[in-house]
Amino acid sequence: MSSAKPHRKLPIDGFVIAIVVTAVIGSVLPASGPAIPVVTHGVTVLIFILFFLYGVRLEPRETLDGLKNWKLQGAILASTFVVFPLIGLAMRGLVPWAIPSTLYVGMLWICLVPSTVQSSINFTSIAHGNVAGAIVAATTSNLLGTFLTPLLALFLMSTSGGLKIQPSSFLDVIIQLLLPFVLGQLSRRWTADFVHKHHKQLKYVDQGSIILVVYSAFSEGMHEHMWSLVSPSSMAVLTLICLALLFFMLWLTWAGAGWLSFGRDDRIAIQFCGTKKSLATGLPMATVLFAGQPVGLIVLPLMIFHLAQLIACGVLAGRYARQWEAMP
């Protein structure tokens, strides 16, 4: 599949701009009065639908078949769920001299969420990498992340992050995330064809859900005086830390894959899948898991990281594509 003609359009589109604009709107015009419960219940319903669709789209049989390449899949999953969390724990040393503890929680959250699906596959395809391996890795990461990310958050964020996660939050995770995901998997016999046939239209359901989650998080953050807790200098330092984390992981996954004797196609898949962090999964999860906490501050670093990873990986994918085209 790595020799197939790639889809050249990079996934840096209006959706990213819409997320940034929505965050600004939520900060300037937060929900108030009777609009608050409407937004809150709307987020709950859309998150349920979102994870139901995730369950329908994932093909467990193909994922299990792809896991036979255990070395490739193990390297990607280790990057996502072992190396990233360890780096997140190490960044605790940045508090308080570089960033306040509230923003460190958001940096740690970046390190716990699963990989992206669509952009990981798209970038790997553009770069002429191992697309089949990327498809399996991205879907497996999200499948495992549904279970692993809340567990990692429980053990790491309540100890190192200083964030108190209520036991009731895990019941919310089960009801709002795991239940619709399982229902989606069980319903595939009846729903998979419909979802596949209407994937372009349903894309707007996904994106609309994320946009409403962003609005809700930043709207709630304004009621909690979120921006009074983040100075311009803290924002600048936070952005630099996000960039440093991204570029370190881009280097480590490429170099580490070389040390492990992976070929070019596999190294590209490891780099693009092992460094991505999913905004589409991380935002809804944070909304459910950290109910009652400053969700806007927690997801702010993830939004910065997400935008940076799209730009950086877009540049890398273009470079790899030119190198591939120049090969004899």
Automatic annotation (TrEMBL):
One cellular-component annotation, GO: plasma membrane
Keywords linked to the UniProt accession: Membrane, Transmembrane, Transmembrane helix
UniProt cross-references to InterPro entries, sorted A to Z: Na+/solute_symporter_sf, Put_Na-Bile_cotransptr
Q: One Pfam family this chain carries? A: SBF_like
Q: Which domain of life is it from?
A: Bacteria
Q: Which residues cross the membrane?
A: 12-29, 35-54, 74-91, 97-117, 129-157, 235-254, 295-317
Membrane as a keyword? yes
Name of the protein in its database record? Bile acid:sodium symporter
Q: Which organism is it from?
A: Cutibacterium porci
